[in-house]
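#struct-queue
[09:14] JT: dropping the first one here, sequence first, then the structure tokens:
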Amino acid sequence: MKIDIVKKNIILGVDIGGSHITSALVDVTSGQIIEGSWKRERIDSQSGAEAIIAAWCTVMQDSLLCAEHSGKIAIAMPGPFDYTKGISYMKGMGKFDALYEQNVRALILGRLSKVASEVYFINDAGCFLQGEITHGEASKYKKVMGFTIGTGFGSASGNEGVATDADYWQYPFLGGICEDFFSSKWFVSKYVEYSGKLVINVKDLIENADNANPLFQIFDEFSINLGTFLARIFKDHHFECVVLGGNISKASPLFLPQLQYHLKVRSMAVPIIISKKGENAALIGAACSI
């Protein structure tokens, strides 16, 4: 009987990205990743449907064979996607065009029927925050906002332990939209504007920093913009804390003190939590969502 209970609590969490897939078995009672089950591989999102599904399933099967489990798979999937029916509607987005109008659930189960029985799909933006409010520092708060800042700008709202996509990437901001200001392309373009030098990405910008370049000026400007945005949406949502994830959050020493100062000036006593779970938050959040 004990073995059955353990198996029931072990769910495969999967994070599908435009260039990668990550999967791991998750103990949903503790939020822990089962040792040895974490797998990650690059994916050619421009290839055919059969090749994409085969690549995904190879990674998922590798994880599933690591320990006893419930047979359930929870996938954090970008949109547009019919999460209930399991049908992809991504087209013209530079990824997974070959899966357009395909029943992705049926395709996955067709390959993994010997090791899995159920496949669930959850919006990827909500999964990050779900992982944080279920088994992270944000679990003690009722109203939480979560943002992933990286190649794009992901956002989610958490209320009473349930996270949903907030869709703030397209929110009007400073004459554009949020994604124009809170993503790696903004940092790269600002660096070029201020220094006249090209960098590949934010990691490259930080690693090649010296006293003569505008790194600190750029992060100061970023903190002002983020503080302005948070103050604006706080008027409507009155959230109790903010969780930041994504690759740019790893550079928090360069912007967090300034951000906290700008919020304090605006009388916003809201704690800012930098995710310690990293990309595992989406895996945990997906598994805990079903």
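[09:21] JT: and here's the second one, same format:
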Amino acid sequence: MSKEELKRAAAAQALAYVENGMQLGLGTGSTAKHFVELLGERVRDGLRVIGVPTSEVTRADAERCGVPLTTLDEIDHLDLTVDGADEIDPSLNLIKGGGGALLREKIVAAASARMVVISDDSKWVDTLGRFPLPVEVIPFGLGATRHALAAAFAQAGVGGEISLRQGKDGHAFVTDGGHWIVDAHLGRIPDPPRLASLLSAIPGVVEHGLFIGLAKTVILAGSQGLRIVDRPAGRV
């Protein structure tokens, strides 16, 4: 199976968690797009759900597929969020934000009773950090924020290059919320919860791509088939 076929297989398995009448968080990215498309097929067959998209791209995909949408201003909780990830560790901590939607993705995931992550098995790692860690920042005072980020990384025992993400036009990439993203090339993050706490305390940081304790279940698609991993009790 190709990588896209693996992603679609994981997305199809996630439909087993969807029940009639659910309020759903709809993730962003290539794997989540498969889920939205498959969900749209179920909606056309009579499934009654309503979704909250985590990006303007996902909003457009959902509208194209006929999935009814709402916002977290109109409802205050979600039953289930299905989203992808850039990296997943054995405690089901994640790195997300490769597509730039980490802020809305985390808001939606935190408002959900359950988060199911869908991925091909290349995203499963022993330790997070090989994928650059996205950090969404306020443009104002970027130099000071970068200095504070470097200090936080040193305090957490990690280090590496911090680069401002560029858009296709060669200028700074701008998120749906109007912020910028810096990518931290750390290589290895031995204590993701500690680093997440340090990053959250920096004033110029809007949000970071460490998703700690949010994913309850991961569906991994690989050459040997599907593997479903539930978060170990008491672990983050």
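[09:30] RK: nice, looked through the second one.
[09:31] RK: The first strand starts at residue 23 and ends at 26.
[09:31] JT: good to know. DSSP finds six helices and 13 strands in the chain.
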